[in-house]
């Protein structure tokens, strides 16, 4: 590492990183933790852990892609946090963290929750990183740990599966309505 790179990631760099992204990291975690008493405090603690990791690993944080790096780290911190609260056999630990549980999402629309629940954890994660966290392009690729083309393809496939799941949900609802009206007749 050169002397210029060493000064890039100093206390002033971290202060700027914190000011720019601490709120986004906190919101990311709040949306992914189960609602209930203390979940905001829990999110604050986890956000602090993510930012402490950024300070400890400051030389690994890529310039210009700080927020995607923080989101990726937050996903790992959240996965570790969840594992602490339940016994999981090592063989059952997934390669990629599923940091989105549709039952715990802060989504009030039952239809949206139902459709998201029909998707794979990876598709939900991709769609929510784009919709909630405003990621796209290179930032999405960084969080997913894939190339830009891979991220674009994954997003396209996730959107197609979302459309399909939405159409299936609408068809199911229409069928249920027809049965209900038939029972009234």
Description:
It comes from Isoptericola haloaureus. By secondary structure, the protein is an all-alpha fold. 70% of the residues lie in helices and 0% in strands. Helix 6 packs across helix 8 and helix 7 crosses helix 8. The relative contact order is 0.09.
H and E order: HHHHHHHH
Largest beta-sheet details:
none
From the alpha carbons, calculate the radius of gyration and give it in angstroms: 20 Å
Strand content: under 5%
Average predicted local confidence, pLDDT: 81
Tell me the structural class.
mainly alpha
Shape: elongated
Low-confidence stretches: 1-7, 102-108
The number of strands is 0
Helix content: 55-70%
> How far apart are the termini?
78 Å
Number of helices: 8
Family: Belongs to the sigma-70 factor family. ECF subfamily.
Domain RNA polymerase sigma-70 region: 17-87
InterPro entries: RNA_pol_sigma-70-like, RNA_pol_sigma-70_dom, RNA_pol_sigma70_r2, RNA_pol_sigma70_r4_t2, RNA_pol_sigma_r2, RNA_pol_sigma_r3/r4-like, WH-like_DNA-bd_sf
Domain RNA polymerase sigma factor 70 region 4 type: 110-162
Brief rundown of the structure:
This protein has 185 residues and is an all-alpha fold. Helix content is 70%, strand content 0%. The longest helix has 37 residues, at 148-184.
Topology, element by element:
Elements: H1 3-8, H2 11-32, H3 39-56, H4 66-84, H5 110-117, H6 121-131, H7 137-144, H8 148-184
Helix pairs in contact: 2-3, 2-4, 3-4, 4-7, 5-8, 6-8, 7-8
Domain RNA polymerase sigma factor 70 region 4 type: 110-162
Pfam families: Sigma70_r2, Sigma70_r4_2
InterPro entries: RNA_pol_sigma-70-like, RNA_pol_sigma-70_dom, RNA_pol_sigma70_r2, RNA_pol_sigma70_r4_t2, RNA_pol_sigma_r2, RNA_pol_sigma_r3/r4-like, WH-like_DNA-bd_sf
